[in-house]
Amino acid sequence: MSACLDEDVSCVTDSYDTVRVNFLKLDQSNARTDTLYFESIQAANGAFLDVQDTALSSISLPLNPSGNQVSFFINWREDSAAVLQTDTLVISYEREQRLISPECGVEQRFVSLSSSKVAFDSIRVANPDVTLYTNPNLSIYTCQYEYTNVVRARFFVRDTATLAEQATSLQINSIVDDQGNVIQNTPATLERVSLPVDTDRSNTSFMFEIENADGQIVNRRLNVSYFVDEIQIFNCFPQTRVSGLDVDSDDYDFVDVEVDDDELKTNNSSNLEIFF
User: Fold this and answer.
1) DSSP letter assigned to residue 201
2) Beta strand 272-275 with 150-158: parallel, antiparallel or unpaired?
3) Over the range 140-165, which residues count as b (16 or more CB within 10 Å of their CB) and which as e?
4) What are the phi and psi torsion angles at 109 (to 5°)?
5) Of 1, 66, 125, 204, which sits 20 to 30 A from 134 (CA to CA)?
6) For residues 221 and 207, is the Cβ–Cβ distance under 8 A?
7) How far apart are CA 191 and CA 273, in angstroms?
């Protein structure tokens, strides 16, 4: 019997019992690597994975060698200061036993991976067979909800002789839009303001009550025009997009207004420069 055994046989195998998951953000152009802040990941048996309070773009989840399904409760945030979200990730698979050789014995392989989700925006099976070399097995997508209806404006002064521009702050007593909505009613010294526009129309006007350096109360008007449409990225929820922001010379009675960025997005630092 021993004469039939190959003493030089290799027992190396690529079987693996851990699913690799990467995270991607869906935006307008493509999917890009996303980093999520994980508060905790708990398996259905109550065991916690060692990823508490950690920012990661990929994770590894152990499979159950005695079953055909595992579940994980994932508590995560977009970043450490964002709203906590909880998702349940269910991973199903088949188990196959294969004889490597009489010397090495039987190995167990995890194949035909599938997954269901509760609240993640989308999940794709990248590699259904789990091996040492298949990475990732699952790709989890979160949506980039980047559009807003808020115009961000900064205040500037311009030297009349040199035309040099300098950021400034103004004493703003109140801001009201043309529908009577109060944007601000508490006097404050501000370097910038946020002005929500009406997405049911293509323009919105704002009236500013300002106390100037001489203590005089002056009123200034600003009218902004824009385009409104709806955009849907992959399987994400539709978003209302405000773009083409424009301010004509007869749309204001400030000294000047210039457009910094004509598309309203949550990560814009400034859309308008208002000169007083």
Assistant:
1) S
2) parallel
3) bbbbbebbbbbbbbbbbebeeeeeee
4) -120, 150
5) 66
6) yes
7) 11
Instruction: Decide: 73 and 92 in contact? Cβ < 8 Å.
Output: no
- Sequence-distant (≥ 6) Cβ neighbours of residue 202 within 8 angstroms: 225, 226, 227, 228
Tens digits of residue pLDDT in 102-156: 888 888 899 999 987 666 778 889 999 999 998 999 998 887 778 899 999 999 9
Q: pLDDT tens digit string along 142-200?
A: 877 788 999 999 999 988 888 889 999 999 999 999 999 999 999 999 999 999 999 99
What is the CA 126 to chain-centroid distance, rounded? Answer: 22
Residues 6+ apart with CB under 8 A from 170: 155, 189, 190, 210, 276
d(C-alpha 121, C-alpha 263), whole Å:
25
Q: Return the SS3 of 121.
A: coil
How far apart, in whole angstroms, are the C-alpha atoms of residue 276 and residue 269? 20
Lowest mean pLDDT among 19-23, 95-99, 116-120: 116-120
